[in-house]
Amino acid sequence: MGLKEAFESLLQIGKPSRKVGDCPVSIVLFLREQRFPTLEQLRLAAERAFRRSFSGDKNSRYCVYQQVLFTLARIGPHTLSVLFYTKPYGADDPDFGIALPLVSQRQAWAEHTSWVALNYVKGVADIDSLLWRAREALR
Asked: How many structural domains does the chain have?
């Protein structure tokens, strides 16, 4: 997936999907510290999560690489993008955190200073399992 396709798929967030699997699935992790993994740490996390070797070559079937603003992980037919941001999530909407349903979510909202988003942008399969593995590997 090229930069154009990755960016276009991220722009579809919040828009109605034409069919199941069209729009990306995202997990946003609130961080108390602005401590982001390096590209090498992400590659090693992918290797732990999927138990196989990952290269930095974007043409490889299993790779982790950066392309302009995006860190991308290709896992066979699947692609994840990883986005790091150094300001609180939704900083322009302070009421968002109050509306979160769980106390733990509201506490995480109040204490976070930055965030990371894992976006599933390409492929059709067991999305829950794929994103769960990615999230666990980043812990």
From this structure: 1
Q: Could you count the other beta carbons within 10 Å of the beta carbon of residue 27? A: 15
55 DSSP assignment: B
State which residues form the domain around 72: 3-137
In contact, 116 and 36? CB cutoff 8 Å: yes
- The residues, ordered by sequence, that sit 6+ positions from 67 with a Cβ below 8 Å of its Cβ are 2, 3, 6, 58
Which of 130, 129, 116 lies closest to 37 in space, CA to CA? 116
Q: What is the pLDDT of residues 125-138, one digit of tens each?
A: 555 666 666 666 66
Contact status, residue 87 vs residue 8, Cβ threshold 8 Å: no
What is the distance in angstroms between the CA of the first residue and the CA of the last residue of the chain? 26
Closest to 123 in 3D by CA, of 66, 73, 77, 76: 77
CB 108 within 8 Å of CB 66? no
CB 130 within 8 A of CB 34: no
Q: Which amino acid is at 121?
A: V
89 vs 85: CA distance, rounded Å: 8
The whole-number pLDDT of residue 52 equals: 94
pTM: 0.64
